[in-house]
Amino acid sequence: MPHLPEHLLTGYRNFMSGRYPTESGRYRSLAREGQAPETMIVACCDSRSAPEAIFDAGPGELFVLRNVGNLVPPYEPDGEYHSTSAALEFAVQSLKVKNIVVMGHGRCGGIRAALDTNSAPLSPGDFIGKWMSLIAPAAETVAASTMMTATERQTALERISIRYSIANLRTFPCVSILEGKGRLSLHGAWFDISTGELWVMNKETGDFERPEL
What we know:
Elements: H1 6-17, H2 19-33, E1 39-44, H3 51-54, E2 62-67, H4 83-94, E3 99-105, H5 109-115, H6 127-132, H7 136-143, H8 150-169, H9 173-180, E4 185-191, E5 198-201, E6 208-209
Parallel strand pairs: 1-2, 1-3, 3-4
Antiparallel strand pairs: 4-5, 5-6
Helix pairs in contact: 7-8
């Protein structure tokens, strides 16, 4: 019995014989000097929407935080355990990133769970339900709309949740202060898994638009 699944070991062998030799100097530099990414990505942990692949990023270029539904909770210094807030704090205060991008995606299971108020919890702890309750007000409003199809409701909430997370980012003093000084910029994006299209949020209107390629 291998200590890792065989497909992971195969992937690592391919990495060591292919990509690593061409980027070994970069890895050695990162090990010696540390990381200094300019951009943090808050993305969903869905296996189909990996930011490093979507943005064709090399090692050390992106500081990536992934959680269910790419959500950012509001600032709550209550002494509890806050992994998303901890990663944000490290990115802003220690790494001094210049950009934070909240990137949602189509067909998000977390968003679907937020819309399906009749679904049973996956476990007694209902951790996903509690986490997705961060966007409960928007989910209830969107779910109640009979003018949209189920697919339209899901896409709408996926994009609304991005705006929610950006608003929550601004509740963190370290974020709002640096944004006010022009040293930190907040962005929203939505990735369509089926087509590969990336939609970027217009900062002035909140609309999602296709960038020119």
